[in-house]
Amino acid sequence: MIKNIKQFFKSRMVQTDIVLMVVITIWWLFVKPFSPDAIVDAKHFWSSTYMLISIMGGIFGLIISKYWGGYKSIIGKAILCFSVGLFLQSFGQLIYNYHTLVTKIEAPYPSLGDVGYFGSVLSYIYGVLLLGRATGLKVSSKTYSNKILTIVFPLLMLIFSYFFFLKGYQFDWSKPLTVFLDFGYPFGQAIYVSLTLLVLFVSRKFLGGIMRRPILLLLFALVVQYICDFNFLYQANHGSWYAGGWGDYLYAISYFIMTLAIIYIGFAFEKIKNS
């Protein structure tokens, strides 16, 4: 059982996550990430390996989820969803790296990799809903505060996503899947961020607010993921994206934080159980 933050950072899972992130960071600095034309092959290789963080996080999540009964319990299923989300991100990156390193052709959009990337969005949404259920969230609550938050948070995030991602969007109905994903990514991420904000609000009263910090960390992880995809779309549209750049490093950070969040959520529920 983790009694405080110091004990949390003494966890082997947390320490492993930190060590791997430090190694990935040092390696990233070595390949000169701010020089697009420097050590290109090394950048591509680095870009294909930092997904080890998400794979490791997914494995840790499976272990923690199994401890809580896996898919047979709400908590186990919630943690399992976040783990699956990390695995799906890894799958998407694997397909992208296959095109970069093997075929030497830029990955098409949409591609098989989008099954992983968009699948992770759906997995995170379901995971947050389950986590909310475990912490006492009732969307159908009669209290006006819950009703307002349920409507306002998603609406604000959707408006933000539209103006930054889709304002002036040119519809090409000859490519319906592309149109679906162009809207599905920002809107889906807006939904899971707003839902997490709602769960964070409700969890303040759950067992003395014991879940506040873990859910806050989860929210941070999802917001960083949102920023990563926002940056990717921006750089891709302006022709400034390249493998091994700071955009890729942002994704590594998001996987690192999500792994910490999964571990923290599991240990927080352990603390509840033992007390």
Describe it:
The radius of gyration is 19 Å and the shape is globular. It has one domain. Helix 6 packs parallel to helix 8. Helix content is 75%, strand content 0%. The chain starts with a helix and ends with a helix. It has ten helices and no strands. It is mostly helical and 275 residues long.
Chart the SSEs and their pairings.
Blueprint: H1 5-9, H2 12-30, H3 40-47, H4 52-67, H5 74-103, H6 113-134, H7 144-166, H8 176-203, H9 212-237, H10 246-274
Helix pairs in contact: 2-4, 2-10, 4-5, 4-10, 5-6, 5-10, 6-8, 7-8, 8-9, 9-10
Instruction: Give the distance, in angstroms, between the N- and C-terminal Cα atoms.
Output: 10 Å
Question: How many structural domains?
Answer: 1
Assembly category: single chain
How big a fraction of the residues is strand?
A: under 5%
Number of strands: 0
How does the major sheet shape up? none
Please tell me the overall pLDDT.
83
Principal-axes geometry comes out as: globular
Structural class: mainly alpha
